[in-house]
Write a structure and sequence with these properties.
heterotrimer; A mainly alpha (about 325); B mainly alpha (about 500); C mainly alpha (about 110); A: about 325 residues; mainly alpha; 2 domains; two-stranded antiparallel ribbon; 11 helices; 2 strands; about 70% helix; about 0% strand; globular; B: about 500 residues; two-stranded antiparallel sheet
Chain lengths: ~325, ~500, ~110
């Protein structure tokens, strides 16, 4: 007898492998990109199956959504370029012998890793046991949020620095290098778009706020919420409601750094009331977490949106 | 302020000082004032490092649990002799390169100041965080900070070649970090721990941990450009703007190599066999010989220096097969000397390029008279890298060769000696272009052009080169610091 | 049984990604392949506690969330770099075809 749950898992795994395989081995870039976005959606389902709803939300919003939008952007540029001239050259493609050796090694690697991964423990390790016992009485209800904003808050803080660095890197490209004028089509405005956005805006704002608010007790949090808000911004950018500008206004710069800044200030200020950085005070810890998480949400949303926008700043555009 | 408070405050300041300053600079778009604040911060850190080192020497290795959580749950800061050495190197180099970069930005047109300064400060913070970290996953995050600060630094030099090199660097780093993360995941799955000090106490030998160690090593090796995954480094380091090249060669690549030593010596020590250690040593030796020969064949100054980095990082791997206190001290000393000397070399190369507009070796002819200080730096730093007495490189090689002979592994001594000869050869080759070629500049306006080299550009490399030499006199003084909690046994230096 | 299935999937995805990184020459394909490798590691991290009788372990979940954000940061920068690099390639191609070989190697 095969249980229906297992059948679903089996289908999901076959789907993941098939889609990932055809994505990375396909010829066209556009095709690969679309397949990769489907892969992201299947991963979101997988996380849900594996009792990781926080990851399912993050994967759907960031992994499939924003990465997909970024990839499509890059593909569009490449496609316009290819139209002008030559087909993709295969001059520097590796030879058959190399491919065969790589394939053989990869199969061996897959077999070895599969055996190793399966054989590893399923019981709690020392860190997991501590996280579980300490997490039970924690003032934050969602165990994942507890780890992200308390036990391993330092990782979360540094990860915000990674996000900011990616944006600074993009700023260098914008300021010091040139993109050819691709004659972008005027922002599309299908007839149903305006009413759709009118409905979508409050819904997505509400969902974003809900994710932020709920994150302390149930699945969700700054990342999921920030990614959703960024997606709303991407919609506005694509429809010309936000237009790129050549400077980052002070307000935008403030939003970009506010999360990391508040988090870092708290990390240092903790030395006033305790002997360890990043330690929450006895009182008002919950409000402090909410404040930091709100600032993180804003910074994440703004950074992801600006990474997509490919411009230094954004301004309100003409709406019809 | 007592020693206890200091040993809490300094690590926090090392990570969050540059980080908060970076945010402030990004927000307020400060230019020169940011340089002054950065220099001030560097001086404060330098001043505090001295009593801090004393405190660690007196009280043993420092382990601080962030967030005040239990050991094993929290991410710890961990400071032993190796960490101390790297923190010193980091602070010194960022201080002097800050001075240099401020002057460099004023000459550069168009100046990439708005991006250079936050990148510089975030890299400073990220490297300090990496050296202080005692947690495997946190190390992954700090590695990503260094990568995403380093790759954009490469493209600051405005060119097609720089972009292509940066893309290659980024791909290597991206794949490397994922392979590293696979190792971290295997460790967590097997041992249930991420804290390095706890792993050192508790990890039993297990095949999964061996695989994890190999995966982490392979991943980090791609970021450190160790032979044979070094292909991206020469072009990336050579095409980056010179202050960035100095940071990349002296610190960023070294930070990744540092991680290999951190993992093999201590936390995962029980997971490898002598045969694996010999293999790691052989890779290091192959890198030393191969990259030194490549350095001899380059026609551009910065590419010689970049290939020299690949060679010099190979020495660090020699610690693994020898694994004695003598080799430990020798390798750390080598890392310190190379860091100071390599930064000096790249900064001096930057000065030469600014005047000559080009870094091909042929152009150096006649520079010994008009750009004498920069040529002097290349000579002094080169001597330190080659390991001639009385430099820091000599002490490092002396200790390493003694360690090799003491452990009966004479073949490493041969490699070290050969590497020193080759290094002397490629440095002498640069100098011979400057001294012995006919001077084409007698009729050209090079004499005016050198006027733009301000003191802030000329003196930092000179001081760094002298520091690399002065290290040679301080071996006995510094050895006790390097040995703090050294996870090796055997003869003392 | 379920864990075995997912472990095999994670291992195969990792090897598949690595193979594609090695043999593909297109940058977008290589980036996608690296992302597939990263996803495989994330999947493995979550599997560690999938059959834990005590319930799921929050630490790997937090690590994967951090990992996803880092992956998207790296990918976003890499894609931007790729676009500008291709634009520079094109420009070089065009000037190269117009000017013939006058410029020569520098």
């Amino acid at each position: 007898m095969i249980e229906p749950g297992f059948l679903l898992d089996l289908l999901l795994c076959l789907g993941l492998l098939g889609i990932a395989g055809s994505a990375v081995l396909s010829r066209g870039q556009f095709r690969a990109t679309v397949l990769f976005m489907v892969f992201g959606l299947l991963m979101a389902l997988t996380w849900a199956r594996l009792q990781a709803p926080d990851l399912a939300l993050a994967e759907a919003a960031i992994g499939a959504g924003l990465t997909g939008a970024l990839l499509l952007n890059a593909c569009k540029a490449t496609y316009t370029r290819r139209q002008a001239g030559e087909a993709a050259s295969q001059d520097d493609a590796p030879g058959t012998v190399f491919r065969l050796v790589a394939a053989g090694l990869s199969i061996l690697l897959a077999a070895g890793l599969a055996w190793l991964m399966y054989s590893l423990t399923v019981a709690d390790g020392p860190a997991a046991a501590m996280a579980r016992s300490e997490g039970e009485s924690h003032f934050l209800g969602n165990p994942v949020t507890v780890v992200l904003l308390d036990f391993r808050a330092y990782d979360t803080l540094l990860e915000m620095a990674v996000l900011l660095l990616a944006l600074i890197g993009v700023h260098i490209l914008i300021r010091h290098y040139r993109l050819p004028d691709l004659h972008p089509p005027a922002p599309v405005s299908p007839p149903m778009l305006t009413p759709l956005l009118t409905v979508a805006t409050p819904l997505m704002l509400m969902a974003g706020l809900y994710l932020f608010w709920a994150g302390s007790q149930s699945p969700g949090g700054a990342f999921q919420s920030g990614a959703l808000l960024a997606a709303l911004g991407v919609l506005y950018r694509l429809t010309g409601r936000l237009v790129p500008t050549g400077t980052a206004s002070p307000g935008l710069r403030l939003i970009l750094v506010i999360g990391l800044a508040l988090f870092s200030l708290f990390a240092c200020a903790a030395l006033i009331w305790s002997s360890a950085p990043l330690q929450y005070p006895e009182t008002a810890a919950y409000s402090l977490v909410l404040l930091i998480e709100f600032a993180l949400t804003l910074s994440i949303a703004a950074t992801l949106l600006m990474l997509f926008s490919g411009s230094l700043g954004l301004a309100r555009g003409q709406t019809s | 302020m007592g020693l206890t408070e200091l040993s809490i405050l300094l690590p926090v300041l090392m990570v969050f000082g540059p980080l908060l300053l970076a945010l402030l600079v990004f927000l307020a778009q400060w230019q020169r004032s940011a340089d002054w604040l950065g220099m001030g911060l560097g001086l404060i850190l330098l001043a505090l490092l001295t009593p801090f080192s004393g405190a660690v020497l007196l009280e043993g290795p420092l382990e601080m649990q962030l967030g005040g959580h239990d050991r094993g749950l929290a991410i710890p800061f961990y400071v032993d002799g190796l960490t101390l050495a790297m923190l010193w190197l980091n602070t010194l180099l960022f201080l002097f390169i800050q001075v240099y970069a401020g002057a460099w930005l004023q000459l550069k047109q168009p100046a990439p100041a708005a991006e250079f300064r936050p990148l510089f400060l975030l890299l400073w913070s990220g490297l300090n965080a990496l050296f202080l970290s005692g947690d495997l996953f946190n190390l992954y995050v700090t590695l990503e900070i260094t990568t995403l600060a380093a790759v954009p630094l490469v493209i600051l030099s405005h060119g097609h070649a720089a972009m292509a090199a940066a893309m290659r660097y980024l791909l290597f780093a991206l794949v490397g970090s994922i392979i590293f993360l696979l190792g971290v995941a295997l460790v967590y799955a097997q041992a249930g721990l991420l804290s390095l000090p706890l792993l050192q106490e508790q990890a039993e030998p297990h095949p999964a941990l061996t695989v994890a160690l190999l995966a982490m090593t392979a991943g980090v090796a791609m970021k450190a450009a160790l032979f044979p995954v070094h292909a991206w480094l020469p072009e990336a380091h050579a095409s980056a703007p010179s202050p960035a090249s100095a940071l990349l060669s002296a610190l960023v690549a070294k930070a990744a190599a540092y991680l290999i030593l951190r993992l093999w010596m201590g936390p995962l020590e029980a997971q490898w066999t002598p045969a694996m250690a010999q293999l790691m040593g052989a890779l290091g030796a192959a890198g030393i010989i191969y990259a030194s020969i490549q350095a001899l064949r380059q026609t551009r100054l910065k590419r010689v220096i970049a290939y020299s980095t690949v060679a010099q990082l190979g020495y660090l791997l020699l610690l693994i097969p020898m694994a004695s206190v003598l080799a430990w001290n020798g390798v750390i000393y080598h890392a310190l000397t190379h860091g100071l000397a390599k930064a000096a070399l790249f900064l001096a190369a930057g000065n030469l390029i600014m005047v000559l507009r080009d870094d091909s070796l042929r152009n150096l002819a006649g520079c010994d008279r008009v750009l004498s200080k920069n040529i002097l730096v290349i000579g002094l730093a080169g001597v330190a890298i080659a390991g001639l007495p009385p430099t820091g490189g000599f002490i490092a090689k002396w200790w390493l060769i003694s360690a090799a002979l003491e452990s009966g592994q004479w073949w490493w001594a041969v490699v070290i000696g050969l590497g020193g000869l080759l290094a002397a050869a490629y440095i002498f080759r640069i100098l011979s272009y400057a001294f012995f070629s006919p001077d084409p500049h007698q009729e050209t306006p090079i004499h005016q052009a050198q006027g733009q080299l301000t003191r802030a550009l000329v003196w930092p490399p000179v001081i760094l080169a002298f520091l690399a030499i002065a290290l040679g006199m301080a071996g006995g003084l510094l050895a006790p610091f390097l040995e703090i909690a050294a996870p090796v046994t055997g003869a003392q230096a | 049984m379920t864990v075995m299935l997912y472990a095999t999937t994670a291992a195969t995805l990792f090897a598949l990604g690595l193979y594609a990184v090695l043999v593909r020459t297109g940058l977008i394909h290589r980036l996608l392949a690296a992302n597939v490798m990263a996803t495989a590691v994330f999947l493995f991290l979550i599997l560690v506690s999938a059959e834990n009788p005590e319930g799921v372990d929050a630490i790997p979940q937090a690590m994967v969330l951090t990992g996803i954000v880092i992956a998207v940061s790296l990918t976003a920068f890499a894609l931007a770099l790729l676009r500008y690099l291709q634009a520079a390639d094109d420009e070089e191609d065009q000037t190269g075809s117009q000017d013939g070989r006058q410029n020569g190697p520098d």
